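Contributing new records

If you add data, match the layout below exactly. Sequence lines come first and carry their own label; structure lines follow with theirs. Keep one chain per record. Anything else will be rejected by the validation script.
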Amino acid sequence: MDASICNIIDEASHFANLYPDYNLDISTLQMRLSNWEYTNENKPKFKFVDKDKFYLFKFLLQIKYLLKNNIGTSDLYDMIGPEGVALSKGKPIDKDIQRWIGMPPSDELRNFLKLYEHFLGGKFIDKKWKFDEGHIEQYPVAKYIEKRIARLTWNTNLWIRPSGYDGKSKNSQLFEATYGYGNEEWLFDKGKIIDGFHYSFLEPLRINQNTFAGKTYDIWLYAINGETKQRFYVGTLQNVSVLTLSEAKKIKQIYNENDWLEEMEEQIISAGGKPEYYDIDKNNKWNNIAIFNIKFQFRDALIEDTPLLIPPQDPIYKLHRYNFNHFSENNRLSIAALSKEKEFIFSHQNSRPSGSSKRSYVIEKKIIEKENIHNEIAEGMYHYLCDVYGEDNVEPEHPSGVGATEIDIVVKDKEKFIFYEIKTIQPLRLSIREALGQLFEYSYYPIHNRAGELIIVTPYPADEDTKRYMEHIRNKFDVPVYYQSFDRYIKKLSEKC
C-alpha cells in the first residue's frame, strides 16, 4: 500500500475517533465514515464540510503538512489557493479537494481550523500558527496489515452460541458434520473477555497455526448455508492476532477456571450437538480440542447485525473449503456494495404468501439472554441509582401492573417515574427491539401513561446509528424513550442518548 495513503488512513481514522492507531483501507474508511456526524458542540457551519467527509480528512491531513510555526492565515490561504501552487510533501493539493473546499476567505479558513486544533497539533495565536510543545511534525507511516478471508461454520445464533446441525455441511469428513457444531460458534460472545480481548477460533488457521502464530491480520468473514449453498457476508475483524500454542493453552486454563468450558459444553448439548466428544476423559474435558487460535478486541469487529446475502455472481462462490485465502480488490468492492444502506422501495410482484419463509438469514430462535450478566448489571445499577436518587426512591423488579410482569428497575424522581429495562442480547439492535415493546406495555397499556422516562440499558456502548435512532423515535412519536449503557467494570451508566 502507498505510504501516503497509509498516512491518510491512519490520521483520518484517528481524527474521527474511530479506532485510533489502526489501519483502514480507503474503501472501508469511506464506508465506515459515510454516516459519521459531527457532534452538536463542534459542528462546523461552513459549506465545505457538508460534502463528502472523506475529503475533509484529506484536506486536514494536507493542511497538517503545510502548517509551520509562525505561518499566518493569509500565507496558508495562498498556499492552498485556487491556483493550487502550494506543495504538500512535493505534491499539489488535490484539485478535487480544491473544488470541494470552495475556497472560503482566509479569516473563515482560520475559524474553520480552530475547530480542529487538537487534530492539527497546535493553535492560532495572534493570527499566527503555533504548534503545541513537543509536537512532532513528521508522522510515521502506519504499518500495513495483510487482509485475508476466512469461512465460518453455519450458525443461526449470530455466532454467539451453537445453533445445531441445521445448515452445517453434510461432508462426513468435517468436524461440524460429525459433532453438530464448530469451535467458532462463540466468535461474537461478548460475555467472555480477558484483559480486554476476546479469544476464539477460526478453522482456516487450525492446521497451520504455527505458521501464522504471532502475526496480525484483518479478516473478511463469510459463511455458507449447507442447505441452500448461499454465501453470506458476516463482517470484518481487524487487528486479529494469531495465538501461539502456548498462549492458547493458557487461555483454555482460564476458561476452565471460570467454568466457561462447562457452559460451552451445555450449549452444544442444548443445540443438539454430540456430547460424546467431550466425555472421553471425564477428568480433563476438552483436553485434545483446539478451541483457541485468535484474539481480538470487539472495538475492531465490524460485524453486520444480520449476515448479508452475497449475490451468486460474486467470486466468493468459487471458494468452498476452510482455507485462509488472500483478500482481493473484488472482495473490497463486495463489502462496499453489501454494506451500503438499502432504500425502502415498495415493489408489487403479484406474489402470494407461500407458507414458507423466504428470508435469506433467519435467527432460528431468540438469542437467550446471559442471565449472569443481566443480574450483574441489575445489581450494579441498583447501587448506582441509589447513590443518585436515594435508596427509598429505587425499586428493583417492580410489578408493572400488567399481568405478572416486572420492570427491571423503577426510579421515583420527584413527581415522575423512570422505568429501566435491561437487555444483554447481541447485537445491540436486537436488545433495543426487545426492550421497546416491553417498556411501551409497562407504561402505556391499555390507556395509561405511567412513566416519565423509559430507558433501555445494555452493556454495549451506543453507536452513531443507535443515537440517531433513539432521537428519531422521540421526535417522531413524542415518547420519552432513551438508551444508556452500563459499564460492568466501573459500575456506572453512560449519558442518555
